[in-house]
Amino acid sequence: MEFNFDEIIDRKNTHAYKYDALQRVFGRSDILPLWVADMEFRSPQCITDALKGVLEQGVYGYSSEPAELFDSIHDWILTEHGWDVSKEWYTYVGGIVRGIAYAVQFFTKPGDKIIVQSPVYHPFTLVPEGNGRTVLRNPLKGRDMDFENLEQLLAEDGVKMMILCNPHNPGGYAWSRETLQRVAALCAERNVIVISDEIHCDLYLWGGKHIPFATVSDEAASCSITFGAPSKTFNIPGLASSYCLIPDAEIREPFYRWLGANEFNDPGIMSSLGAIAAYRHGRQWRDAVVSYIEQNILYIENRCASFTDKDGRQLIVPVRPDASYLVWLDCRWLLAELSGKNVTDLQPKDQKLLEDYFVNRLRLGLNSGVMFGREGLGYMRLNVACPRKLLGFEFVL
Ligand SMILES: Cc1ncc(COP(=O)(O)O)c(C=O)c1O
């Protein structure tokens, strides 16, 4: 089956956040938005077909959760990741950030400490801090965790939770089994709950395989809350369809009772039908979109290779992701050039020059690296889930 990922779809004036928020966020709207993590591709036809039935009937009453929703999630995870999840571990949640927020509220109290690996997807810090929790940052060591520092952080009083991005965003790094096992052992020993956000787990590139955190050891199963969704994979974040899996009954039962009491776990009919269609009939589309994204990454790598300073030094170095479509651009040499400083002397306030360069010189809306933490200084995040033609912009000084 052929899918046309080259088609340019006009999303302006369709209430698309990626477009509507340009003026507010970047100060101008005449730029190409390659920031918010959704795709410029039409979702698989099977999803639209599934939703059409509801639209054609035209009755939008209360719905019940179809049994098929869990079954389709179960079968997908088993086939894709070899994890045989049980029905009692499962609940629906209306978005992963929301799910993380529920868990933060339920399992921690104001003043408690929550560990993240930074730079990291910004709601991992915004949600805890917005709820009066303290975030402890464990800066990444290259593509791995800094375990020495992690052990020191875990030894502090009041650490109750770690929020793990598996695979990691930004950077798209896959964690090794050994890393996940070490995290599980350290956290389980100290009764620290690990939230594993696996939203990007079905977009592994280059033939790589995802490792669900909860599967790496008994300790991981005993201390973890896993969130997943079809939203990134099939470009349906607007359907708010996500799931939560908790193998450990002591963690799960009171949390699920609380979610139920507050009606935080009821899917709308569009959420259910979209997810079922995606997981039952979307595999070919997913395989095709992964190949297209890989080609886009290679294309960007190629384009950046020829953008050099007068000494032939490459100014933007894309960090190749293991998973998903968000490319972490190492622009430190470009920022050094723009600021007239050495790379080692760059300061947080210099990032403005980089942001200004992308918006006003290249007319591109990218995520600034520092929004993911101060370790993102000199970096920008580029979303390549778009028709390749849109990536044909010229890099100029
Ligand atoms: C790691 C990660 N978690 C969660 C989300 C958002 O999930 P949701 O829209 O379900 O809240 C994103 C979106 O970019 C993400 O990258």
Please describe what this structure looks like.
By secondary structure, this protein is an alpha/beta fold. The chain contains 15 helices and 13 strands. The protein has a 7-stranded mixed beta sheet with strand order 2-8-7-6-5-3-4, with helices on both faces. It has a 4-stranded antiparallel beta sheet with strand order 9-10-13-12. The protein has a two-stranded parallel ribbon with strand order 1-11. Helix 14 crosses helix 15 (351-361). It is globular, with a radius of gyration of 21 Å. The mean pLDDT is 97. It binds pyridoxal-5'-phosphate (PLP). Pyridoxal-5'-phosphate binds next to helix 5. Pyridoxal-5'-phosphate (PLP) binds next to helix 5.
Task: Produce a short descriptive summary.
The chain contains 15 helices and 13 strands. By secondary structure, the chain is α/β, with parallel strands linked by helices. Helix 9 (218-223) links the parallel strand 6 and strand 7 (224-228).
Q: Describe the strand arrangement of the main beta sheet, using strand numbers.
A: 2-8-7-6-5-3-4
Number of helices: 15
Q: Could you tell me the strand content as a percent range?
A: 5-15%
Which molecules are bound in this entry?
Answer: pyridoxal-5'-phosphate
